[in-house]
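re: that chain from earlier
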Amino acid sequence: MGLPLLLPLLLLLLAFLQAGRSTKCSSKLGYEMNQPEQLSAPEGGSVQIPFSFCHPWDLPSVLSVSISWIWKKFHGEFIYNTTPPFIHKDFENRLSLNWKNGWSNGSLQISNLRREDKSLYFCRVHVTTRNHGRQEWQSIPGTDLTIIPAPKKTTQGPTTAAPTDGLRVSGDKRSSGSWPLRTEAVVAVALFSAVLKIAILGVTAYLLLKRSKEPT
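^ sequence. v structure.
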């Protein structure tokens, strides 16, 4: 097969490949940026926010494309940019963009989600064309991301015995308005009291007897 026959086939193949990679809008709108309106993910987990865009230019007339992400509001802070490379300090080591130049869709992944990540997220595309200069557009409603709080860990505190009447116990320490005596102590006190009384009576009887024997 000669070169004159190969050239039309190569041109046809190139046109087919470009058609497969076309970023032209199928609708009547010249520019589109599509994102899900709402997403939710658990605290500590990760989430992917998908996006897709289109424009009215053929790929050969597009010189460069870059992607940016904004949060909180339509004209909010930039948290990610492909050109020049930028990641917001609150998202360091937590953002990754699944997109390559020439693609019309991709996704932004946020890892190690925090409660503070609950917000609106907007994808913006910047296109530099050969004949129309630099153009940019973004999603109007954005994606409302909800963070599901992680379940709280319950810890059981130390238990204390219920206080008894006149006696409160906490560990090895005890306090009481009136400390109750044990049975052995009561018996010992009673026995000592009886012996003391007998001794007193004995001394008294001895003195009386001695006095009665003395001559008058």
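The helical segments are 3-20, 183-213.
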